[in-house]
Structures are given as structure tokens and as C-alpha cells.
């Protein structure tokens, strides 16, 4: 099994047995309970192009179910692609969104 798959499998197992295993990292925007009804949005820019990564909560203030939506405004304005979703694993969407934003930044995008 490739190393990345082992890491993901291990992280999932830990999350199953430790409900608070997915703590917010510094790359994850701070969202308080007051902000729970609003989606969390990252905005990334590169050479005049804009990309948005959104964490949307279906039943706010609950953090699940959730979805990570990706917008490529120049290619398809206001059309989202769902990259990941979770029905009952709190923290999953936040973690995946933060990882994806870090990947975009490694490709030269400036995200906030």
C-alpha cells in the first residue's frame, strides 16, 4: 500500500476511535459557533485567475454533513465541483479543504 494511502487509513482509524482527533491547524480558518451558519471560504489568486474553496455545512450549526466545494471562476462562474463530503465525521471537510489550499499554494496560488 503506498505511503499516502497508509497515512490516510491511519488518520481515519484514529478519527474513528478519538472523536476530537481532527483539531484545527493554523492553515484552517478560525470559525466560531457564531460563524457556523456561514460557509468557510478560501480565495486563491494567481495571474489574474481566482479559485475558491468552500466548506459548506448542510445543517448548521452542526459541522456535518458537510462538503468541500471548488469554484474555478474563469472556467465556470458560480459552478461548484464537490471535491469531498462527509456525513458524520466532524473535521473531515475542514482537514481536506486545508490540505487542498496548501496544495494550491505549493503551485503558486496566493490564498486567504
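-> sequence recovered:
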Amino acid at each position: 500500500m503506498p505511503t499516502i494511502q497508509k497515512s490516510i487509513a491511519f488518520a481515519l482509524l484514529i478519527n474513528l476511535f478519538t472523536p476530537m482527533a481532527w483539531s484545527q491547524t493554523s492553515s484552517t480558518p478560525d470559525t466560531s459557533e457564531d460563524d457556523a451558519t456561514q460557509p468557510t471560504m478560501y480565495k486563491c489568486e494567481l495571474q489574474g485567475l481566482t479559485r475558491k474553496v468552500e466548506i459548506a455545512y448542510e445543517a448548521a450549526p452542526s459541522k456535518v454533513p458537510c462538503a468541500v466545494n471548488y469554484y474555478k471562476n474563469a472556467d465556470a462562474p458560480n459552478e461548484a465541483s464537490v471535491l469531498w463530503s462527509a456525513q458524520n465525521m466532524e473535521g473531515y471537510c475542514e482537514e481536506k479543504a486545508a490540505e487542498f489550499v496548501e496544495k494550491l499554494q505549493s503551485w503558486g496560488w496566493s490564498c486567504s
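Strands lie at 40-46, 49-57, 66-72, 80-86, 110-111.
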